[in-house]
Amino acid sequence: MDVLELAVLGLLHEAPMHGYQLRKQLHARLGTFRAFSWGSLYPTLRRLQRAGLIAETDESAGETEDGAEPAASGRSRGSSWGRRGRRVFQLTADGKDRFDELLAEAGPQTWDDESFGVHLAFFSRTPVDVRMRILEGRRRRVEERREGLRATLSRAGEQIDHYTRELHRIGLESTEREVRWLNELIDAERSADAPDDAPSSDTDA
């Protein structure tokens, strides 16, 4: 699965945007997990257009790509810069179906470093059972990484220098923190999904 496809469809599900807005939102929402470049964004937009998942329309007012009115210089409203600013992408009906399809995925590819953060960013729109499978799968993946790092440190002993040992140690601490964080998220999901106790009916004596 192309995680950028999921990210773009998810953002356009919230509101139509032009390319510059999309790029800003990708960095604002997902910058902690990964950075997307212009080089990867626009080919993805064109591919989604060809597939009929998004459509391109014109903004009602002329704007530059940063959302501001064009400066009163020699550049006219009809310039290529102005036209780029007015190209707005929006989700089609097929695009909404595709977004729902991607949200329903919970296989091993959703646990990877490459895609976990993108799925997490759209958890509010993801079915509860899918959220749980992704979180539990991610926890297993990180626990495997943690145990591998522990084994490496144990086997290496004095065979590695101080700096290499510190590199492994910081990686181990990072995985331990993520496991604790995932445990908290999983516990919160289970608590939210637990049925409330049925209220007892009071009867008159």
TrEMBL record:
GO molecular function, one term: DNA binding
Source superkingdom: Bacteria
Coiled-coil portions: 132-166
Keyword entries, A-Z: Coiled coil, DNA-binding
Domain Transcription regulator PadR N-terminal: residue ranges: 8-62
Annotated Acidic residues bias: 56-68
Region (Disordered): 56-81
InterPro entries in the cross-refs: Metal_resp_DNA-bind_regulator, Tscrpt_reg_PadR_N, WH-like_DNA-bd_sf, WH_DNA-bd_sf
Name this polypeptide is given: DNA-binding PadR family transcriptional regulator
Organism per entry: Actinomycetospora cinnamomea
Organism taxonomic ancestry: Bacteria, Bacillati, Actinomycetota, Actinomycetes, Pseudonocardiales
